[in-house]
Inverse folding.
């Protein structure tokens, strides 16, 4: 649905997007995650034909964004970071106007308005002035505008910025529902949002893609993804020595907590060492009072990856 190959964009001498490649398949909800200034909006503006790239290629539903912008625009719905709306218009009037810009006839427009009002939960507000709506409601009007021509692909740039927690939750649920009918690329710098809604995440930092995958795949890329926490009662030096000698055990961190040894065990190559630790404790007659896997969050990954980039001076 979306194909991006080696895309680059400079502003003067500054490289905002630096040779990125990615794809979004039909039916996916893909998160485009990165800190402020990472290059998300620039990439999105290229994909939605608002900005030319310096090099590389990009296509949406098989149409080249540079050579076939009319076809791309008719297949893509775009919700910019701050959707430009007309405050003096009523919601229905505004959507009607936007439908006309898509060359939709009256009957088609009416059907389309009914469809987007329903899918964006605007039923009670359709005859209200846009200027009198809350920010959350205006965001939904922006979303219904992006959907009016029933595009296959929906591109949302930071859709929850400036919303309160209730509005954020509503918008998130709304987006998840829209994913049943549309392929979605969702830009965000909020990890939680992406983790909740998206099936796959592309992480961008300083104009480059630094990782991509499902939340589970990203987690396995974090060194500490399945660190094992165990609490064993026994002589500390012996416990350390015996646990460290187990197959599949890497680094072992040990700390005394009310007479117990609290171990942080790093497995090698994702090994599951729970059974060996349990057997060891049983064989030696040591008590074992806790054993759990500490699963890293996407947040750990995000912090790690962006810190690595900083460290490398990128
Ligand atoms: P944010 O979440 O803050 O919107 P972003 O990931 O969307 O960030 P972009 O808006 O694409 O990032 O910006 C990428 C970089 O390019 C930033 O450093 C930004 O300051 C710079 N930039 C963006 N637009 C322009 C412009 N028109 N002229 C010069 N520099 C720009």
């Amino acid at each position: 649905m979306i194909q991006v190959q080696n895309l680059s964009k400079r502003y003067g001498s500054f490289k905002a997007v630096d040779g990125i490649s990615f794809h979004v398949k039909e039916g996916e909800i893909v998160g485009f995650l990165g800190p402020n200034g990472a290059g998300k909006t620039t990439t999105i503006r290229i994909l939605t034909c608002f900005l030319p790239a310096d090099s590389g290629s990009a296509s949406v539903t098989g149409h080249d964004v540079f050579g076939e912008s009319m076809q791309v625009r008719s297949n893509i719905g775009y919700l910019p970071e701050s959707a430009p709306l007309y405050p003096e218009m009523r919601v229905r009037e505004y959507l009607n106007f936007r439908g006309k810009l898509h060359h939709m006839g009256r009957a088609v427009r009416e059907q389309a308005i009914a469809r987007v009002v329903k899918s964006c939960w605007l039923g009670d507000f359709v005859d209200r002035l846009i200027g009198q709506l809350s920010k959350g409601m205006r965001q939904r009007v922006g979303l219904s505008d992006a959907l009016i021509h029933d595009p296959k692909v929906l591109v949302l740039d930071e859709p929850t910025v400036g919303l309160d927690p209730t509005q954020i939750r509503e918008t998130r649920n709304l987006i998840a529902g829209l994913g049943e009918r549309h392929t979605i690329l969702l830009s965000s710098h909020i990890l939680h949002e992406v983790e909740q809604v998206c099936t796959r995440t592309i992480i961008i930092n300083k104009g480059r893609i630094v990782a991509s995958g499902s939340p589970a795949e990203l987690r396995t890329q974090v060194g500490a993804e399945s660190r094992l926490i165990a609490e064993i009662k026994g002589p500390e030096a012996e416990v350390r020595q015996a646990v460290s000698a187990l197959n599949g055990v890497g680094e072992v961190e040990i700390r005394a907590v009310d007479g117990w040894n609290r171990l942080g065990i790093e497995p090698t190559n994702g090994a599951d060492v729970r059974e060996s630790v349990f057997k060891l404790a049983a064989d030696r007659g040591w008590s074992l009072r806790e054993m759990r896997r500490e699963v890293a969050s996407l947040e750990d990954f995000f912090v790690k990856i962006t810190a690595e980039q900083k460290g490398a001076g990128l």
About this structure: Residues 56 and 218 are 26 Å apart (CA to CA). The mean pLDDT is 89. The radius of gyration is 25 Å. Residues 11, 14, 16, 34, 36-42, 189 surround adenosine-5'-triphosphate (CB under 6 Å).
